[in-house]
Amino acid sequence: MDLDFETVFDPSREVLESLWHGLEGFNRSVLGGYDYARLAVVVRNEDGDVIGGLCGELLWDWLHVQCLWVDEGLRDRGVGTKLVRMAEDAAISRGIDNIHLETTSFQALDFYLKNGYEVFGQLEGKPAGHTWYYLKKENIAGGR
After folding, report:
1. What number of CA atoms fall less than 13 Å from residue 14's CA on the CB side?
2. Interval 80-100: pLDDT, tens
3. pLDDT grade, residue 34 (50/70/90)?
4. Of 72, 77, 124, 137, which is the most buried if we count CB atoms within 10 A?
5. Is the pLDDT of residue 144 over 90?
6. How far is the C-alpha of 82 from the C-alpha of 19, rounded, in Å?
7. How far is it, in rounded angstroms, from Cα 77 to Cα 88?
8. Of 39, 85, 45, 47, whose CA–CA distance to 65 is shortest?
9. Contact criterion met (CB below 8 Å) for 36 and 30
């Protein structure tokens, strides 16, 4: 069998979808059926512009928070905490009781710690001069 290997920077959507589809097929062959959903909690200003929000995915009994951003003018006003609480409530409504996420030493580590998340791993030097933290919050429904 002739195989052609290539390294691709910024691969096409088609390539990425093929890879994810293949991985999902394997996962389902091992785990059987499972639910998957994307999630966004958004805050808008009076003009309808997005000025903050959280996005993630619900998969395998966990919510993975992929991003959380709040416009600088809204920080330290409880907006981030409300976004996190709304995402937690949405996860609970889907039967998901655990959350994990990543942040860096220059982003929001203290924010997540104040909101009940705990560090379970870290990677020094990602990016250079900083630390990448892995956080989780388990039993969110029972912990309230």
Report:
1. 0
2. 999 999 999 999 999 999 999
3. confident
4. 137
5. no
6. 35
7. 19
8. 39
9. no
CB count within 10 Å of CB 131 equals 16
Assess whether pLDDT exceeds 80 at residue 24.
Answer: yes
Sheet-wide strand order for 62-70: 36-44, 50-59, 62-70, 99-104, 131-137, 118-124
DSSP 78: T
Looking at this protein, which amino acid is placed at residue 14?
Answer: E
The token pair at 133 is 């933290």
Give the CA count within 13 Å in the CB-facing half-sphere of 60: 8
Q: How far apart are CA 44 and CA 10, in angstroms?
A: 31
Residue 33 has pLDDT above 70, yes or no: yes
Cis ω before 127 (30° cut-off from 0): yes
CA distance 55 to 65: 6
Domains of the chain: 35-137 (3.40.630.30)
User: pLDDT value at position 116?
Assistant: 95
- ω into 11 cis (within 30 of 0): no
